[in-house]
Design goal:
Blueprint (H helix, E strand, L loop, with lengths): L1 H16 L2 H25 L8 H8 L2 H14 L5 H17 L7 H18 L4 E2 L2 E2 L9 H24 L4 E6 L5 E20 L12 E4 L2 E18 L4 H25 L5 H26 L12 E6 L4 H4 L7 E5 L2 E2 L3 H8 L5 E7 L5 E7 L10 E3 L2
Antiparallel strand pairs: 1-2, 3-4, 4-6, 5-6, 7-8, 7-12, 8-9, 8-10, 10-11
Length: about 400
């Protein structure tokens, strides 16, 4: 008996890790890193972060949020329809295949799956699969509450992830200005995978894996289903510093999620509000993306070359530049007492005193400050700076 239980549990875990979306997310994360490194080397002849960074952060940054989300779903009893869950995953797979992560927000997957269920019920009500019948799904009952609430929770998680992590790994690259100069823009393109536990009614899984966890409430049997949820993000920062733009976007997205949750709970009294909640989520998320994209196409570049000094485009982690507290967008006016106006002069001045570097830096606020750092033999030979040419 014990061997059978262990075998079934291992089989269930294998189902999760062999889920197509899980495998596709791993491949997509590797490709994200590959194209980022290729883009950075094309602009600066050096990469900012290792190529496997996106793969390493795929789950590690989102695991805590996945745990909290699973607990909330299970404790509050947010039951979903298995058909909706399958369609949700299919929508996510389509977004992964396109590699266009502007549409990889879970609110789009949730709303798309909900609408697809409606059309299945209207035009293919007799469709059945493993005991699931399309015509029996009630989109104006409990599902009109649970789906919007879960979608709102996922939006809040998406906002928090964007707020905390995107700016840290924003990838700099050169773009031509209207005057023919080379300025720097920042590509924030990320992918997260959240292993989330969902509740579905019935025994679809236990019929094939008898010892898979389930419980009974009243006369209804419920099953725990682990699903890999993806959240994608893609945005270019040009006229605003990346560390200001992306957190602002994250806060706005999280706020939309809170509104969706509130309206979703209001569907307890008026089921149509559940539909409205999904519409608010889709519209709000789309408006944030469109407004940001349009706003970043107008105005001057935030990080652009100037005549007196060398502008910082990026900081390599754990480098002398990071230890000095330098940030992107600041301008180095002098090094070791020598005025610099381009990259060649900058590194020539560094060699004046290779063991001790003194910088005169013009901050974003227009204030000039002096900084210094002891340079050790193992430190980056260029201080870890990517600069505007």
């Amino acid at each position: 008996m014990k061997e059978k239980i262990v075998s079934d549990l291992l089989q269930a875990v294998a189902f999760f890790f062999l889920n197509p979306i899980f495998i596709m997310a791993l491949l997509a994360a590797v490709l994200l890193g590959y194209y980022r490194v290729k883009r950075e080397r094309r602009s600066f002849n050096i990469r900012l972060l290792p190529g496997l960074t996106e793969l390493k952060l795929l789950v590690s940054e989102s695991l805590f949020y996945a745990f909290i989300l699973s607990v909330v779903i299970l404790v509050t009893g947010l039951v979903v329809d298995p058909g909706w869950l399958v369609l949700f995953v299919v929508a996510a797979m389509i977004a992964l295949i396109t590699f266009y992560y502007k549409i990889a927000s879970p609110i789009y997957f949730a709303a798309g799956a909900f609408i697809a269920l409606y059309f299945l019920g209207e035009y293919a009500s007799g469709f059945t699969y493993l005991g699931w019948v399309a015509g029996k799904v009630d989109l104006f009952g409990e599902l009109a509450i649970t789906v919007p609430v879960i979608a709102g929770l996922l939006l809040v998680v998406e906002g928090r992830l964007i707020n905390r992590y995107v700016a840290q790994n924003a990838s700099p690259f050169f773009m031509n200005t209207k005057r023919g100069l080379q300025a720097v823009a920042y590509k924030g393109k990320r992918l997260w995978l959240l292993p989330v536990l969902f509740l579905i009614p019935g025994d679809m899984i236990s019929a094939y894996v008898p010892y898979w966890p389930q419980f009974t409430l009243g006369e209804t049997l419920f099953t725990f289903v682990p699903v890999p949820i993806i959240i994608g993000f893609s945005q270019v920062a040009r006229s605003t510093y990346a560390d200001l733009l992306f957190p602002k976007m994250g806060r706005a997205i999280a706020l939309v999620g809170v509104v969706v949750i509130a309206v979703g709970f209001a569907a307890l009294w008026m089921p149509m509000l559940g539909w409205a909640a999904l519409g608010i989520g889709v519209a709000g998320r789309a408006i944030i993306s469109i407004q940001t994209a349009v706003g970043q196409r107008i105005g001057a570049f935030a990080v652009a070359p100037i005549s007196k000094g060398v502008v910082i485009a990026g900081i390599i982690p754990n480098s002398p530049a990071e230890k000095m507290g330098l940030v992107t967008g600041e301008c180095i006016r002098a090094v070791n007492g020598r005025q610099v106006s381009n990259e060649k002069e900058l590194y020539a001045a560094i060699q004046v005193n290779a063991a001790h570097c003194r910088l005169q830096v013009l901050g974003r606020d227009g204030e000039v400050r002096l900084m210094q750092q002891v340079i050790f033999r193992h430190d980056h030979h260029r201080l870890g700076l990517l600069v505007v040419r």
